[in-house]
Design a protein that fits this description.
By secondary structure, this protein is an alpha+beta fold. The chain has 3 helices and 8 strands; from the N terminus they run E-H-E-E-E-H-E-E-H-E-E. It has a single domain, classed as Alpha-Beta Complex (Aldehyde Oxidoreductase, domain 3), CATH 3.90.1170. Keywords: Molybdenum cofactor biosynthesis.
Amino acid sequence: MTDKKPKSVFKQGAISSEFIGESIAKHQTKTSIGAHNIFLGQVRADVIDGKAVAAIEYTAYEDMANQKFSEIREATFDKFELTCMHIYHSLGIVKAGEICLFVFVSSPRRKVVFEALEYIVEEIKAHVPVFGKEIFEDDSHQWKVNN
C-alpha cells in the first residue's frame, strides 16, 4: 500500500470573492447541514516603523505544509461533528485588503462550527510552515512575525 499524497490547499495569489461564493453555493444541496462558519484571513496594511504594508508574499514548504493541513483536518473531524471542511491558503503576492486564508466548515449544529473553526485557525497558525514576507509601499520588505 502506498501513502497517498495530501491534497494541496494552496491557491496562487489572492482568494477571490467569486471562489468563496461558489464554494458556499455548492453546499445548498447538502440538506443535512444546519450551520456553516467561515474564516477569511485578510492582509492588513499594518504600519511598521512608519512604513505601510502593501502586500505579503507567501511561501511554504508545500509538501510539509499540505501534510500539516491534512493532519489538522483529520484531527478536527475526530474532535468535532462536521459534515464538511475546506481550507485554502494563498501562495505568492497578496495585496493589502485581499484574502489569503479561507476556512469553511459545515455541521448539522451551529455551536460545533464556531468551536471547530477557532480550533482549525489556531492550529494552522501554530503548526503549518507557511511564511509571509511583508512588502512595504517603498518596495522594502521583511519577514512577517506570525501573530
